Amino acid sequence: MSETITRLADYDTETRYRTTVVSSECITSEQSDEEVREIELDVDLPDFSYQVGQSIGVLAPGAAEFGQEYHFRLYSVADLPERSESGNPRIKICVRRCSYVDPYSGERYDGVASNYLCDLKPGDELSITGPYGLPFEVPEERDADLILIGSGTGIAPFRAFVKHIYRNVPDWKGRVWLFYGAKSGLEMLYMNDRKNDFPRFYDEETFEAFQALSPRPSWDDPIDWGETIAQRGDELWRMLGDPKTHVYVAGIEKMRSELDKVFAGLAGSEEKWERRRAELMAGRRWVELLY
Question: Domain 146-290: which topology?
Answer without folding.
Answer: Rossmann fold (3.40.50)
